[in-house]
Amino acid sequence: xxxxxxxxxxxxxxxxLEGRGAPRIALMLRNAKLCIDGxxxxxxxxxxxVTGVRIRAFHPIPxxxxxxxxxWEGQRFPIEQAWNNGQExxxxxxxxxxxxxxxxxxxxxPKRPVRVNLALPATILHGDIGTQVTICNLSQQGVCIxxxxxxxxxxxxxxxGEGLPDPLDAIVLWNRGNQHGLVFEQTFALADFALxxxxxxxVPLREGTTQRGGSAKGAAIxxxxxxxxx
Length: 230
Description:
Blueprint: E1 14-17, E2 25-36, E3 39-49, E4 52-57, E5 67-72, E6 75-84, E7 88-93, H1 99-103, E8 116-126, E9 129-138, E10 142-146, E11 156-160, E12 169-176, E13 179-184, E14 186-188, H2 190-200, H3 215-219, E15 222-224
Antiparallel strand pairs: 1-2, 2-3, 2-5, 3-4, 4-7, 5-6, 6-7, 8-9, 8-11, 9-10, 10-13, 11-12, 12-13, 14-15
């Protein structure tokens, strides 16, 4: 029997408010991805209006010029930072938005967990054989890799790489050309996953720091993966 992650893995709540002649606002608790100068930061959207969005991250939010937010996979909205209080920040949309279009998911893969795009070298271990691969994207529940080698579906392997928790066991779920999807035996809690991917991209985990400190690797908590093996 597989365990469940709980509310952290897919928080989503929306309440529409009208009043005082102000633009309509929706209070939300939705996992999202903040894209800042090529780095991708996991966050939770606290509320959204036709003009902007307020988010909270799991570490200090880096400053940057090129910013967008991905509320669901395949749909990015350009934004500009209005204020930053460390782990919480407000952003203005580059143009007025349709609030319903923001609230109701209509992306290519609307219900998939948030994926962070990477180009991270790693090793897939099967028995005594190690194969060099590239991690293309990472989520709480799995990983997509690139490799010319093909593994049988449902094959158990171990993933090794700088900054990744050890051990990190996974099962091969699919193969498409040189890309392969693997599902973790145990998932990441959302907060720990956010810290891990921040550290993998050299995003400071504390204000005033500039280098990776290795804390995310040690702190990452893996939980039994509730995803089916098919």
